[in-house]
Each structure stands twice: as structure tokens, then as C-alpha cells.
Amino acid sequence: MSADDDxxxxxxxxxxxxxxxxxMLKIDRLLYDSKTDKQRIRVFENATFGRVLTLDDILQTTxxxxxxxxxxxxxxxxxxxxxVHSVLIIGGGDGGMLREVARHxxxxxxxxxxxxxxxxxxxxxxxxxxxxxAFDDPRVELVISDGAKYVAEADDTFDVIxxxxxxxxxxxxxxxxxxxxxxxxxxxxxxxxIVTQNGVPFTQADEVINTMTAFKxxxxxxxxxxxxxxxxxxxxxxxGWGTNDEELRATPLEVLQRRYxxxxxxTRYYTPEVHQAAxxxxxxxxxxxx
Length: 290
Ligand code: SAM
Known about the structure:
Blueprint (H helix, E strand, L loop, with lengths): L2 H5 E2 L2 E7 L2 E6 L2 E7 L4 E7 L3 E6 L2 E5 L3 H16 L4 E6 L4 H7 L6 E6 L2 H10 L1 H4 L8 E5 L2 H7 L4 E7 L13 H9 L1 E10 L7 H12 L4 E8 L7 E8 L9 H11 L8 H6 L5 H4 L4
Parallel strand pairs: 8-9, 8-11, 9-10, 11-12
Antiparallel strand pairs: 1-2, 2-3, 4-5, 5-6, 6-7, 12-14, 13-14
Helix pairs in contact: 2-3, 6-7
This protein binds S-adenosylmethionine.
The site of S-adenosylmethionine has 24 residues, from β7, β8, β9 and α6.
């Protein structure tokens, strides 16, 4: 069986991410399939998920469930912080994270560092609902570079850093390294917070353990919060949280509600109540945090 047979049988795309456990999505219509020097990019249509983006045959985002992921990685740190002027997004080439961050009008500077400009170009064409024009926002500075190199080399700081990465395979591996996290910690302004895509703990426990072990040495307050996102199979997805402001995590509900109303956000997954509840961890996830 060739590598391609292995990932596609009778018009079904098969994700090959875990030992002994795979998810399959029917390819109703293949819209894009190309190999860049960094990774293989595909977009296809599926009756349940709408348009589906895969990189190196790992599901990245889908039209129907992307709001859950993007709202929870963007609004939780921004509304917990309450006075965000600058945001750094690492990865996130599909533009969904940028769209959610840009909805906060008080933010004056948004830097996005994406390693593969072709992801951005094709996402604008095939998944325009994700960025919804956010790449044209004058507050956005787009840097095409390795995110790990960017945080290692520059000196300016950010109130919020959002790591919207692939899995720790290929170019995404650098975004799970101790050196990268240490550089991010250095690039956080006083009272700043970093959030990270940390995989599905049921199948990717090591991602949580490794990130939380690194955060333990870097931040006064570190933990995970979770959301359930159907395309990331295997249960709740974990997001890493690291900050030196120990009060951010415990921001009172009334404060979150006031900030949410003031921003006039209309969200489909995020609510201030879900924000608070997302930090309540099942024991099997809590036990992964050192
Ligand atoms: N939500 C997705 C998930 O959980 O699988 C992540 C999607 S987003 C499309 C991931 C992005 O990270 C991709 O556009 C990829 O090109 C980018 N990326 C991977 N490694 C990177 C690196 N070292 N520096 C900057 N961007 C990177």
C-alpha cells in the first residue's frame, strides 16, 4: 500500500494521527491539493463539516466547527486580561484566529507570524469565511517566518500571545519546544498571558505534559482550559494558559460579562459562563499537569 492509499480509501479521507485510532471524512468534492516546500495542503467539502482544511493529512480546521476553537483561544485571554493593546498570533494561517482577535476594537496592534504564506493565500481563496477580510485590517502586521525564530529574535512585547499551531510534527514541532516557550515568556508584557493549542489530552497527553512542565518553570500561574471541538476527535481539546498575573484566571463572572457586553461580541461558543467553566478540569486532565 502506498502512502497515498493509506490516507485515502474510496473517496474517504483518513486522518493518520494516532496509533490504532483514525477518523474518516468523506471527500464530497476535492477543491485544492498542493504540496508546498513546508507541507501538503488540501481542502475538500464534506456533508457534516462543510469545507475541511488538512495539512500533511492532519485535520486543521473545518467550516462548521472552527468557531468553537477560534472563539475560545481568542476571547478567553483577551477578556480575562481586560486591557489588551497588542496581540501576537503564531501560526493560524487560515485567518480564523485573526478574525476573532480583530473583533476587539481596542486592540491597536496585531502581529501574526505564519511560516507558510501559501496557507494564507489559498485559505483566502478557498476558506474566505475564516478570515472574513481580517487580513486587510490596517492594525495587522503579517510576518512570514518561523514563529520560533520570530520570538527568539525580536524584543517588543505583547499583552496576549496566541499559539495557533499545527500538531508537534514537521514545522509545528518548534512551537512546542522549551526554548520557544521561554522566548514567548520574555515577549509577554507585564500582566500578559499566553495561550496555546495543546491537542486532545485523551490521545495526546504528552502535549499537555510537555507544555505544562515548561510553563511550570516560566509562569506564576499555569494550567489548561478545554473545549469540545468535533473535528479534533477523541474528546475535549486542551489549551495551555500561562501568566504571571495569578488573578486573571479567577476574573469574576460579572467582570467578564461586562467586558463581553462592552465589546459587543456576538459569539456562538464563547460565553462568560463557558469561559469560567472551561477551567474546571476533569481529573484525568488535571493529573497531567505537574
Ligand atoms: N487549529 C489547528 C489545529 O489545532 O490543528 C491549527 C491550524 S493553523 C492552520 C496552524 C498553522 O500553523 C498553519 O497555517 C501552519 O502553516 C502554521 N505553522 C506551523 N508551524 C509553524 C511555525 N514554526 N511558525 C509559524 N507558523 C507555523
